[in-house]
Amino acid sequence: MNNQTTITLNNGTKIPQFGLGVFQIEGNEATKKAVLEALAQGYRHIDTAHAYQNERGVGAGIKESGLAREEVWITSKLWPSDYGTAKTTIAIDKMLQRLDTDYIDLLLLHQQFGAYKEAWKEMELAVASGKVKAIGLSNFESNRLEEILQIATIQPAVLQVECHPYYQQSGLKKRIEPFGIALESWYPLGHANEDLLNEPIFQQLAKKYAKTNAQIILRWHIQSGNIVFPRSTKQNHIQENIDIFDFALSNDEMAEINQLDQNKRFFTLSLAEQEAQLSQFIPED
Ligand SMILES: NC(=O)c1ccc[n+]([C@@H]2O[C@H](COP(=O)([O-])OP(=O)(O)OC[C@H]3O[C@@H](n4cnc5c(N)ncnc54)[C@H](OP(=O)(O)O)[C@@H]3O)[C@@H](O)[C@H]2O)c1
């Protein structure tokens, strides 16, 4: 699929704008299968995390695909239980082993709590030693984003957050734009929310372009400049989701979809609740 688009990050590397997310794909076998299917369909970008407990499946899928390592973009994320001076470097080495690779294209701090400043500094060291090419943040929507920007020697390349037509993140985009930080959308299909998927505007445009509602939403992300990696384990959805590079929404159609923005998140925990709840979880190595 040569017509896939890329985004040039603020460190000069080019990330495929579209990929496969593997959140909630249970186990390494199921993950390997989804990754193999996606790579066979032309995907060249996989988004995983230590917390998903399936990095080994990602590494195995890429190896088994026969593609050269540099043809596939791997993003993974560090969990707060691994934040800390020296601790984070050890965690990165273990992650490289799980992914069965000698470098990670993009490494993110998964959550905005714990010893995140120390972890950022360790990630900068990993860039210097070549273990990681680009570094970024996930879920840093509070002023902890600015705390990182102040201490960073290497500015974050991306910020990965919930983003879909009901929650378009226009305010956050304004905050990150001066730093050249790209926005990555999680829950790009609203985590398969029926109300979102069945919005009349998507039905109408799907009919016009002979696409599905999900494809219209994904195309809107691409034209909005978002990096996007919908998750699926179904062959037909994996195939369908990447088939969005042969048509374009008009400016008026983009504007009409932009009207759906209603500040509606599907993940609604406050920062304090996230900190209390998520810090209970410690991923296995
Ligand atoms: N950084 C973070 O904290 C964070 C949080 C959440 C997610 N993420 C990342 O973002 C990725 C995507 O998020 P997500 O998986 O939660 O939500 P999502 O991609 O918005 O939605 C996934 C759901 O949509 C369904 N689906 C996929 N393609 C479809 C299609 N063409 N038509 C209809 N339904 C379709 C999938 O079911 P089927 O399997 O049946 O296709 C699945 O139930 C994750 O995998 C992960 O990489 C990051």
From TrEMBL:
<dbReference type="InterPro" id="IPR018170">
    <property type="entry name" value="Aldo/ket_reductase_CS"/>
</dbReference>
<dbReference type="GO" id="GO:0016616">
    <property type="term" value="F:oxidoreductase activity, acting on the CH-OH group of donors, NAD or NADP as acceptor"/>
</dbReference>
<feature type="site" description="Lowers pKa of active site Tyr">
    <location>
        <position position="77"/>
    </location>
</feature>
<keyword id="KW-0521">NADP</keyword>
<feature type="active site" description="Proton donor">
    <location>
        <position position="52"/>
    </location>
</feature>
<keyword id="KW-0560">Oxidoreductase</keyword>
<dbReference type="InterPro" id="IPR020471">
    <property type="entry name" value="AKR"/>
</dbReference>
<feature type="domain" description="NADP-dependent oxidoreductase">
    <location>
        <begin position="21"/>
        <end position="261"/>
    </location>
</feature>
<feature type="binding site">
    <location>
        <position position="110"/>
    </location>
    <ligand>
        <name>substrate</name>
    </ligand>
</feature>
<dbReference type="Pfam" id="PF00248">
    <property type="entry name" value="Aldo_ket_red"/>
</dbReference>
<protein>
    <submittedName>
        <fullName>Aldo/keto reductase</fullName>
    </submittedName>
</protein>
<dbReference type="InterPro" id="IPR023210">
    <property type="entry name" value="NADP_OxRdtase_dom"/>
</dbReference>
<dbReference type="InterPro" id="IPR036812">
    <property type="entry name" value="NAD(P)_OxRdtase_dom_sf"/>
</dbReference>
<comment type="similarity">
    <text>Belongs to the aldo/keto reductase family.</text>
</comment>
